[in-house]
Design brief:
42% of the residues lie in helices and 12% in strands. By secondary structure, it is α/β, with parallel strands linked by helices. The protein is globular and about 50 Å long.
Length: 279
């Protein structure tokens, strides 16, 4: 009989099922590789150690931002600031990683914090239950962030976020439109001034140019947005159920915003580990 089997039988005989499972998990934890060992095989221990010391801010914990957080905590980022005032709604179930029947009605930042700590209990997580606006921009320590992720919807807030990061010298990557699209293979990483097709990127280009912003890394789609069916009726229903006031609601899928979030996370990891010796 192997040592592992003897251990399991001893645990089963002497402890309750719950206690036995917990004890066995602790025993295996001494011998299993560390949680980021597979990542370390690709980028090296130095890079993994560096990521554990990095602090990122994710503005918008929705279809895109949730997957940004998911990928970054699994990549070893050590500290997070999560900013969003939304609560999980039933209409989020089709695409948002934090949305389940059990989390409906809870603040998204609280659910995401729990998920991050379930993956890496050593992570440090700050939550801000508010929407980012020009009026509250001074409440955020932009100079303390190693990277900022813009996954919010409104143009005014996105522009202010870019301006704050530019003044603080903090790297930022911005998500363009992920709604009303069906093809996740058409996402691209580019400077804002080299984007095309995306309506949100068009507005951002114009407004940032007015403000003298020379560059901005974005993830955008070259897919022509679709026109959602039953727009006004769907908007009224979601506004009533989710406490919002929108004139129209974009259509969405599970596989488009998630891909945008994962692409953003890959760029963040790549940028944060650039120049770190791979060993």
């Amino acid at each position: 009989m192997t040592m592992t089997l003897r251990l399991r039988r001893t645990l089963q005989n002497s402890l309750s099922n719950e206690e036995a499972l917990s004890a066995e998990c602790r025993w295996w934890g001494k011998y299993m590789p560390e949680r980021f060992s597979r990542t370390e095989l690709l980028i090296g221990k130095n890079a993994v150690d560096h990521l554990s010391k990095c602090r990122v801010a994710v503005f918008g914990i929705g279809g895109v931002g949730g997957y940004v957080c998911e990928a970054l905590v699994r990549s070893g980022i050590g500290a997070f600031d999560l900013i969003d005032d939304d609560k999980v709604c039933a209409s989020n179930l089709n695409r948002q990683i934090i949305a389940t029947e059990k989390t409906i009605g809870r603040h998204k930042v609280d659910v995401m914090k729990e998920r991050i700590l379930d993956i890496n209990p050593e992570a440090r997580v700050n939550v801000y239950k508010c929407f980012f606006l020009p009026e509250n921009a001074s409440e955020f320590p932009f100079e303390s962030y190693d990277y900022v992720i813009d996954a919010i919807d409104t143009v005014t807030a996105k522009i202010e976020l870019v301006m704050q990061c530019m003044h603080a010298g903090t790297p930022i990557i911005s998500s363009m439109g992920a709604g009303n699209k069906l093809d996740p293979t058409l996402f691209r990483v580019a400077d804002i001034y080299k984007t095309k097709t995306d309506p949100l990127a068009r507005v951002m280009r114009r407004e940032l140019k007015k403000r003298g912003v020379k560059k901005l890394k974005v993830v955008y789609s070259e897919e022509i947005p679709m026109t959602p069916l039953g727009g006004a009726q769907n908007a009224n229903a979601e506004n009533e159920n989710c406490g919002r006031d929108r004139r129209s609601i974009p259509g969405s899928t599970a596989f488009v915003p998630s891909v945008a979030g994962l692409v953003i996370a890959s760029e963040v990891v790549k940028d944060l580990t650039a120049g770190v010796e791979r060993s």
